[in-house]
């Protein structure tokens, strides 16, 4: 009695987000069949892992899925606005309806194993599949990061990671300590302020960006100046580009920049350096608040200088801006805080995620577990990644760069699939 043949697809795509479905569409345009496995439902993280008031940080015009740009193809009417969560999912659902991928929702991929004869075996919750090529489009947000010392915090103090946060109503009355000042941390800070809560913020090394500058959104200037076209191969500091936290700003209320010094002066947000330890009701901080604020401002001023240089080089008539001034600087570094005495009843962790690729049984990872590739193509024939930051440009892993990345990857897959046929023919 022979084993029943396993179902086969030329390409298996793991992950039903915008990166996976964009790749499926670009493959379909080349006449290549693919199947997309998504362990939840399509665009799950946009639907379920974002808070109620979430909106884009980048303008809507940057939403450029392949053949489905926000204004040109989708018919969006506010290219300079910032879509809210439900509007984002409506845009993504419309793309899926337009492109009709072979999508299997509720299917978890548990293992990808290369075969000696070529191709892969893909273990899923609905059985084994084989394929010639695999695209990993799961992103880098698998495991929420919480430090070990969080377990030593007094049990009476409520804790939550940002992935679970939906609104302030989930938290007990009282003040909150938000740990992390990336894009999530500073926007959640504003949620609590609007609810009338006392906010304490552990300020990390994240950089910040201007929002509107010299008459336009800073991202408009940077796009026009070619900044977003710089590739990782041509970047003057590729290590910094790949490891640096995203610049923080906000799309709320039509878009605004976030100056934490102003939030301290105007809204009473209490600022501390990077969180270093917790024990009982005590939190300890590094004495790096002044440095972190200065570094964020340095990044902010660097972007302004880039825009100024472009305006001068091109002879553009743009309104002048007043020079930046610090509205506040810490007189001393507070390195210890008794949360109970300060009226803090909750801690909200906003310090990011780490990927988990343990289920991929191929030698394509460096010592820290990050995949090694060239524009998503690994050294192991047929194994590819997409939807990660700086896959090729700043826009990789964001709406802005997914069209270019998915078209390139589809071309690489098509070339690899054609190579055996060419060898036989020759």
TrEMBL record:
Q: Does the keyword Oxidoreductase apply?
A: yes
Q: Where are the transmembrane segments?
A: none
The family database entries (InterPro entries) matched by this protein are listed as:
Auxin_biosynth/cation_transpt, CHP04046_FMN-dependent, FAD/NAD-bd_sf
Q: Which Pfam families match?
A: Pyr_redox_3
What UniProt keywords are attached to this protein's entry?
Oxidoreductase
User: Gene3D superfamilies under this entry?
Assistant: FAD/NAD(P)-binding domain
Domain of life assignment: Bacteria
Record's keyword annotation contains Oxidoreductase: yes
Record-level Gene Ontology MF annotations: flavin adenine dinucleotide binding; monooxygenase activity
| SUPFAM superfamilies the record matches | FAD/NAD(P)-binding domain
- Its protein name is Putative flavoprotein involved in K+ transport
Upper classification of the organism: Bacteria, Pseudomonadati, Pseudomonadota, Alphaproteobacteria, Rhodobacterales
């Amino acid at each position: 009695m022979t084993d029943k043949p396993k179902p086969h697809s030329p390409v298996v795509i793991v992950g039903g987000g915008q990166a996976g479905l964009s790749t499926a569409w670009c493959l379909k345009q080349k006449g290549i069949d693919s199947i997309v496995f998504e362990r939840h439902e399509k665009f799950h993280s946009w639907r379920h892992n974002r808070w109620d008031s979430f909106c884009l940080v980048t303008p809507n015009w940057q939403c450029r899925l392949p053949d489905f740009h926000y204004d040109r193809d989708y018919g969006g009417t506010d290219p300079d606005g910032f879509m809210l969560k439900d509007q984002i999912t409506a845009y993504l659902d419309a793309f899926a309806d337009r492109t009709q991928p072979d999508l299997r929702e509720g299917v978890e991929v548990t293992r990808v194993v290369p075969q000696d004869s070529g191709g892969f075996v893909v273990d899923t919750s609905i059985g084994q599949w084989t394929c010639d090529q695999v695209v990993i489009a799961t992103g880098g947000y698998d495991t929420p990061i919480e430090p070990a010392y969080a377990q030593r915090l007094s049990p009476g103090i409520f804790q939550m990671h940002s992935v679970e946060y939906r609104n302030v109503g989930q938290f007990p009355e009282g003040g909150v300590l938000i740990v992390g000042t990336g894009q999530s941390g500073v926007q959640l800070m504003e949620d609590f302020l609007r609810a009338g809560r006392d906010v304490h913020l552990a300020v990390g090394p994240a950089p910040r960006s201007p929002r509107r500058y010299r008459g336009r959104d800073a991202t408009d200037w940077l796009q026009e100046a070619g900044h977003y076209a710089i590739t990782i191969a041509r970047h003057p500091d590729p290590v910094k580009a790949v490891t640096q936290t995203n610049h923080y700003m906000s799309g709320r209320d039509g878009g605004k920049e976030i100056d934490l010094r102003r939030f301290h002066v105007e809204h009473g947000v209490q600022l501390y350096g990077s969180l270093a330890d917790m024990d009982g009701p005590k939190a300890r901080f590094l004495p790096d608040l002044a440095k972190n604020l200065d570094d964020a401002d340095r990044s902010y001023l660097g972007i302004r200088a880039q825009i100024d240089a472009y305006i001068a080089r091109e002879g553009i008539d743009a309104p002048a801006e007043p020079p930046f001034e610090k509205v506040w600087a810490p007189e001393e570094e507070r390195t210890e805080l008794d949360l109970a005495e300060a009226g803090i009843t909750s801690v909200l962790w906003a310090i990011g995620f780490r990927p988990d690729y343990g289920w991929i049984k191929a030698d394509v990872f460096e010592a820290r577990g990050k995949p090694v590739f060239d524009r998503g193509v690994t050294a192991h024939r047929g194994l590819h990644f997409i939807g990660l930051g700086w896959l090729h440009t700043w826009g990789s892993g964001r709406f802005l760069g997914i069209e270019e990345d998915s078209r390139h990857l589809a071309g690489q897959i098509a070339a690899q699939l054609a190579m055996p046929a060419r060898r036989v023919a020759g």
